[in-house]
Amino acid sequence: QGQEKLNCNPKKENGSHVVLCELGNPMKAGARIMVGMELSVSGLEDMGDAITFHLQLRSKNSPSSANTSVTVPVEAEAVMELRGNSLPAITVLPTSWHRVEGSRRPEDHGIRVEHIYELHNKGPSTVSGANLRLAVPTQLGGRTLLYLMELGTEGGMNCTNLPALNPEEV
Q: Which GO terms describe its cellular component (predicted)?
């Protein structure tokens, strides 16, 4: 008929986390109750793809008890955001400019452009093992478009399948 909030208390019992909810007394014989529970569980990053709750209904007045298990899929959700910037934002080569063959000076090979990419986790879950694939066009029409000098990362990230960096040792 009516709705009541349950008084529930978490505790540890035999190495398991237990939540004990008192439904109250006295109950009439043959009474039917329906209980809805909302649980917030943290630290599930390494739990796999499901977590199982073991539910037990016990009565002090009856020697029998009812047991059931509920398996709930675990789904991590995280919103990733990629931000990028080029310094300078716009680069225009003069029409009369030509690179100097054999030179080891970077300025003889073009204008320095730095590309910075930031990958942000906006949550709500933590992220591990994320992959970012970045394709950089280095050639256009058989000619050098971008000459990659160096690649750096911050924040414990690793790079794999690196392109040829500074092949002419400029």
A: external side of plasma membrane; integrin complex
